[in-house]
Amino acid sequence: MRNLLRSASGVARDIARIAAAPPAGEQVEEVLSLLYRVIPYDAAWLGLIDDTHQRYTGLVNVGYDDRTRHYFDTRELREQVDRCALNTSPAPQCIRDTSFPFDELPVWSEYYRPAGLFGGMAVGLFTRDRRHLGMLLISTDDWGNPTDEARDLIGALAPRIAAVVDPTRTVTELARIVRDALGGVVLTGGGRTLPLCGLPGHELLSEGSALLGAAARQHAQGGGCVSFLWPASRIDDDERDSLDDDERDSLVQVVVLGCPPYPSRLVAVVVRPPPAARPRLTRYELTVLSMLLDGWPEQRIAGAMGLSVYAVVETTERIVYRLGTRDRHAALLRAARQGWFIPHGFGGTPA
Amino acid sequence: MADLPPGAAELVSEVERITALPGDATDRVPELLTVLHRLVPYAGSVMQVLNPERREFEMLGEFGYGEPTLAYLRSSEYYHEMELLGMDRDRPPMCLRDAPVPPAELASWAEHLEPAGFREGVGITLFTPDGRHLGLLSLHTDDPAYPSDAARDFLGMLTPLIADAVDPMRSLVTLSRIVADAQAGVVLTRAGNVLSIPGLPGHPLLAIGSAVLEVAAASLTEGSGYHSFLCPHRPAGGTEGHVRITVLPCPTSTPIHLLAMVLTSPAGDLRGLTRRELEILGLLVDGWSNQRIASRLVIAQRTVAAHVEHILSKLNAPSRTLAAVRALRRGLYVPRLLARSDR
């Protein structure tokens, strides 16, 4: 036992080394091969749960045949994971530990046993904020293997393994480059949101919200990192007349950070706006600014805002004056760089 | 069985969670010490980080010691004593009973800890995976039976995690992965100094006082996100080209004196933009008029207009303003200070 714990300590160190090294693409393979020092296994598999929590996607497979490997990606396996509560508890389980007759697990009776894999264990992987991330499956040809000790050691190593394979870790640090954050979420390619570890969500950032739609459109246009302003509360139609109000208190700054390793992923963070730093611009002017930044001609802006072309020209001149620049080009660049605009919806103001 | 302490997996999860908390290491240490009490029923605990220049330990957090003992733990005598015990090397946790010399010969023990009522203890040396010496965690008990051998060995398993929790650079290494093809990088401090990033080499463009770092620092006053731009560069023995510079503000999980991480990577797809066009884009991004650009570059205004025409078609932009906005967001420009014609 002592030797096993010592070697597990060595494995923990090696996993830390892998986690700290620049990603070489084979980190997960390396981690699985390290586990062989704790359990001399015949097969091992690690998969991550997809965004919809329907099924797992295998990251690495060592030793399982194709039929079994494909089975791991099915909803059926997902249901068996549920039944064993491996998706809610970080406790590792051997096949002999199930609270019901293990013959009721198809993965055992139809896949493992026919392949001569009589022993084995499974452990759920969780993010640091305890969301289910994936599964680690290990099989041996011996019912008594892994031993209870080896099983528990793998269980103790599992959080470290999860940290290596957790794709949101880098994203979490990315969100933290934004100071004074009020809240943030990860936006996936499918339009779903994921929470960020250590940063609360925000009412403006709920799934399907107008803000997240605007964030995705802004990102699609420019890539990289975009910042813009957004109303902290809904605009009521009867308040629309007060076009000249100073809006500095009722807007939040939004920062949209593209995550290059995952082109379909974005982080949207809502920030407390730095109070006096921004020039006095109305909500209306900030919306016109976003249309100008999209290259809309004055005619189109006039149509969208329900104003005369003359009024739009006048507004543009006022924007240039208020931004303190020598011309319109410089004003627009200043607004783009500082994120001083409110993305317009499809032709109207966001509401 | 069960040399493994009860709730071992849960303990690892807890320590992993604490390691990921934002804020300074000083915020994480008290939580860490609280969790470790479940493993070792200590009466005193102290987390110390190494000050390599002074060869002393600085306290990140402590519990259960009197002031004279703390003063000794901070002294260079104590550090020297730890060196003699081999606690300046990456080694498994060591209990007092494992020490290569009798406790009576250790001043810290004979003159401070034992008179204070401590009977056992374990020292855990903290190193980064790339071998940087970070510090020392000590847990002292008033019962010679604790920590048990199993708890001591289990601490060995936790050591890399504990090291992560106090490593100021750890979250920077994680963040640097945002630039998947980063080739070099440095950390810029608020005082204008440059620190290296573990696992990444430095770069001649990123030296203290360099124009790139000046532009990088200036970019931080704009918006709250990260910034990217191009810099002309001729690698040793290579041909004239560009490298991409990415400026990432340091996350809130790093010490406050660290300002930003500046990384270099291959320039990527430049959409056929020439060096001169990328420089003109840099001026457009600054809001300059064609006239001002012409006098700056000492070329005719119609030459500038011709360059801008090429830029518009390469960026598929209907106006110079939109071209500049696109160039800004994609980092497809050379900032004014980095233009060759400026140096």
TrEMBL record, chain A:
SUPFAM superfamilies: C-terminal effector domain of the bipartite response regulators, GAF domain-like. It comes from Plantactinospora alkalitolerans. It comes from the Bacteria. Keywords: Transcription, Transcription regulation. This is Response regulator transcription factor. InterPro entries: GAF-like_dom_sf, Sig_transdc_resp-reg_C-effctor, WH-like_DNA-bd_sf. The keyword Electron transport does not apply.
From TrEMBL, chain B:
InterPro entries: GAF-like_dom_sf (IPR029016), Sig_transdc_resp-reg_C-effctor (IPR016032), Tscrpt_reg_LuxR_C (IPR000792), WH-like_DNA-bd_sf (IPR036388). It comes from the Bacteria. Pfam families: GerE (PF00196). The keyword Transcription regulation applies. Keywords: DNA-binding, Transcription, Transcription regulation. Residues 266-331 form the HTH luxR-type domain. SMART domains: HTH_LUXR. This is Response regulator transcription factor. It comes from Plantactinospora alkalitolerans.
